[in-house]
Known about the structure:
Strand content: 25-35%
Number of domains: 2
Helix content: 25-40%
CATH superfamily of the largest domain: 4'-phosphopantetheinyl transferase domain
Shape: globular
Low-confidence stretches: none
Structural class: alpha+beta
CATH architecture of the largest domain: Alpha-Beta Complex
Order of helices and strands: HEHHEEEHHHEEEE
Number of helices: 6
Amino acid sequence: MPPSKEHSALEVISGLCGRTDVACVLIASEDxxxxxxxxxxxxxxxxxxxxxRREEFTAGRAAANRAMRELGIAAPPPVPQGKMRxxxxxxxxxxxxxxxxxWTIAVAARSSSVxxxxxxxxxxxxxxxxDISRHICIDSEIAWMRGHPQPLRALTMIFSSKEAVxxxxxxRCKRYFDFKxxxxxxxxxxxxxxxxxxxxxxxxYTRGYSFExxxxxxxxxxxxxxxxxxx
Length: 231
């Protein structure tokens, strides 16, 4: 992979990597770092899984393993998959994994420092011309997107940020929720959206629960992350 492409991908995760309490690992999706799946992880894969799915899953677990090692966990436990295809991190650890060819990113943090974290990486260059906005956006977000100088890029930002929100909150509340169950408002100059839940998920994540999801971009890449602090 050309260095410029790698630099571009690294650029957008630099803000997150700047946190000393969060380990962030980016690898090429085909690079498993010599990692072999643990039997508990292997069980998460369907025997009929295609090669691309197996490659991404293995790269995600390899990156997760390295991220936990960077937290000081000498022999990281396996990270199998839950019913919503979410990574099941070991007790005392929270994290998230994202894939966008040719990259895989995993982040991990101690739960004593971070209560929840969700990340998503998307390529704005691969956003299709088809209009998927009606599936992921509420009316106010569509209006913002259409007023943006680059509407498809804006749509990618909304999509990526809502993916990060889901990855952060759904493992906590053990519930699926939809793209339209959250409202995002762009914060100019802050590289972030202010968000609000439009439904009740549980006692903590009630209707009106507010959060902020950072959304960094380079020429091609959009990287979004939500971090909920502990305490």
